[in-house]
């Protein structure tokens, strides 16, 4: 469960970082349109809300504490990735949900 919550946080922070003008330009080479920026912000907040709901549903208060504890490494990983390899963040936006999907499939 910790890996799933970490991947949700990592993907959420990646979407939220990509919605910012400077980061989007560094990653994709073009500035974001208003519609795309609002879509990325909404998707990032939606994924984060999904992580919060999953943490509360599975473990109650302890799951939420685990999610909060995993937010720091996820944000740190995103910031290191964004500063050192901005184009790699484009790949992480798609790999984090794919890894989460594979994790869920492997659990069953």
Q: What's the SSE blueprint?
A:
Blueprint: H1 2-18, H2 21-28, H3 34-59, H4 61-84, H5 86-107
Helix pairs in contact: 1-3, 1-4, 1-5, 2-5, 3-4, 4-5
Concise summary:
The protein has 108 residues and is mostly helical.
Explain what this protein looks like in three dimensions.
The protein is an all-alpha fold and 108 residues long. The chain is built from five helices and no strands. It has helices at residues 2-18, 21-28, 34-59, 61-84, 86-107. The longest helix has 26 residues, at 34-59. The protein is elongated, with a radius of gyration of 14 Å. The mean pLDDT is 84.
Mean pLDDT: 84
Main beta sheet strand tally, sense and closure: none
Number of strands: 0
Helix/strand/pairing category? mainly alpha
**String of helices and strands:** HHHHH
**Relative strand content:** under 5%
Q: How helix-rich are the residues, as a percent range?
A: over 70%
Distance between the termini: 13 Å
Segments where pLDDT lies below 50 for 5+ residues? none
